[in-house]
Structure formats: C-alpha cells, structure tokens
Amino acid sequence: MAKIQGVIYCHNIILGSENMEQTGYGEHIAHTVRNVPYETAIQTEDIAGELAKKFALPYNHAKTITNVKLKRMADKGEIERLQKGIYCHVKQTFFGKVTPTADQVLLKTLMVQNGAKIGYESGASLLNKLGLTTLIPRDIEITTNRYGAKLPEGCHIKLRKPPMPVTDENWKYLQFIDVLMYLPDAHTDAEKPEVLLRQHAKEQQLDYLTLIFTARKYYPQKIVLPLIDLLMEVENETASR
Fold first, then answer.
1. Which Pfam families does its entry note (predicted)?
2. CA–CA gap between residue 195 and residue 217 (Å, rounded)
C-alpha cells in the first residue's frame, strides 16, 4: 500500500511540475503578446520562436503550445484572429471592441520578417507617395517574398512576385526599377516625372552600377536603356554644377 501511495505521490509531483511549466509558458506568451505594438501582427511563428528560446524547447513543441494559447486568448476576445497564424490586438472602448484594419496589420508581415526586409511597396500607391501621381488607388501593391500568402476577404492588398528574393540589401534597387517599368503605362500628372525619379535615386543613395546590373540580370531588356538614360542625366546634372 505504501508503495502504491509513493507512486501516486511521485505522479502528482510530475503532473504538478508539468502544470507549473504550462502556466509559465502561457504567462510568457501573454506577456510577449502584450508587448507587440497595436498595429503590428501577432504571429504564431514569432511568439513560438520567443517561447522556444526562453524555455529551451524544440520549436515544433513551442509552436503547438503557442497555437493553443493564442486560440484561447482569441476565444476570450483578448486578441482577434485575422487568418491562420496571424492575430491582432483588441481595444475595448466606450463604443465597443476596436481592432486595427487587416490591411494595417498584414502590410508589415508582408514587408518585414524577423527584422529583415522581405518586401516593398510598389505600383500606383508608390507612385502617389513619390509625387508622380495625385491619384490614390484603392488597393496597395506589395512585392514580397510571401507573394503566395492567402489574404483575408476584403483585404485591399495585392501581392506581386519579386524578380529575385527581396533582402535588406536589394529592396531599394528592385523598387526603383519597378517604378521605372510601371511608369509608361501609369497615369502620371507630375510635370517632370524623370526629375522626381532622379531626385529619389540620389536621396536613396543608390549605386548606379548596381542598378544597371540588377536590371540587366533580373528584368526585361527593354528597361535597361531607359534606366541608363535616366542615370546619365543624373551624372550630367551633377557635372554641370
């Protein structure tokens, strides 16, 4: 009898230890979620990575725990699920529950991952920001490594596949060449769009040889000559001063 009681006692200690660990995991996940900025996506993979690092857990085990905890938080209305693996914050106001728009949250997940650049804005919305057009498009175009991601219904984001994987080092070059390619078929009401583009290239401190080599290797050949002409004008303007 004493032996059986001893086994039960040990079993209860093990269960108690596991429950304490599970509680610690849940508290850590909740704390991590609270520290995510309001308009930033709460991503399962990011939270699981933090949990695995904190408790020295295998990533797959940490991800399973994270999935369960985030689902429970969503069921309680503490956060809201946007799509698989992506949640956002919820604010309670006098008028009820408020969340950031799906567009606001998802844009960051499409352009930055684990602190590294994986995408950039392109298309008509970028032309508007650069002052090339006064038209404000309904949809935002994002060129991203996650071009195959499934977006929720009603989302005003369009995804494009980049000509090469986007990185911290190349995204500004790819974005500039994209603008130059998009320009001939786009509505522009700037008097001298080329001047604005040359100014943008200088502000971004783009290396001209890198621009040309990137265009030659990853883009249709028809873009190379217009790009060279544009950059030569920059050199001429600089030399004439």
1. DUF6088 (PF19570)
2. 25
Instruction: Give the pairing type, strands 140-144 and 157-160.
Output: parallel
- CA quadruple 39, 73, 81, 144: dihedral, nearest 10: 50
| CA–CA dist 34, 121 (Å, integer) | 28
What are residue 122's phi and psi, to 5 degrees?
A: -145, -175
Q: Among the CATH numbers 3.30.70.100, 1.10.10.10, 1.10.357.10, 1.25.40.10, which is that of 2-98? A: 1.10.10.10
- Per-residue pLDDT at 188: 84
**2-57: pLDDT as tens digits:** 544 444 444 443 344 344 355 689 999 999 999 988 888 899 988 999 999 999 99
Nearest 5°: phi and psi at 143? -95, 120
Q: Where are the domains of the chain?
A: 2-98, 102-239
Contact 163/180 with Cβ under 8 angstroms?
Answer: no
CB distance 186 to 133 below 8 Å: yes
Distance from CA of residue 21 to its chain's centroid?
32
